[in-house]
Specification:
By secondary structure, this protein is mainly alpha-helical. It is 76% helix and 0% strand. The protein has helices at 4-21, 26-34, 42-51, 60-95.
């Protein structure tokens, strides 16, 4: 049997754990870099500028704390899923 599922499960578990515990600002980085519309495609931002209105998410910094909390909650779910995959794949590896 392959070692890929346990490695994948442990990777997902550790990534979710880092987001859930905000290890070294992982949740803050995910919110400020990955979810910030200021980093959106330049063409999309130009399209809104031509229409004379701002991007719908440009009030980003008012909701950044709420989004950080949601990222941490989803990180917990991802961590639990990764742990489940790790346990099941390890059981199948040992029994198979």
């Amino acid at each position: 049997m392959s070692l890929i599922p346990p490695l994948l499960g442990s990777t997902v578990f550790l990534a979710g754990l880092a987001l859930a515990t905000d290890h070294r600002g992982a949740a803050r980085w995910a919110v400020e870099v990955l979810l910030n519309p200021a980093y959106a495609e330049p063409g999309l931002l130009r399209r809104y500028a031509r229409r004379g209105c701002g991007h719908p998410q440009m009030h980003f910094y008012r909701s950044a704390l709420r989004q950080r909390r949601l990222v941490r909650i989803w990180g917990g779910f991802v961590s639990a899923l990764g742990l489940l995959v790790l346990v099941v794949s390890t059981v199948f590896l040992v029994l198979g």
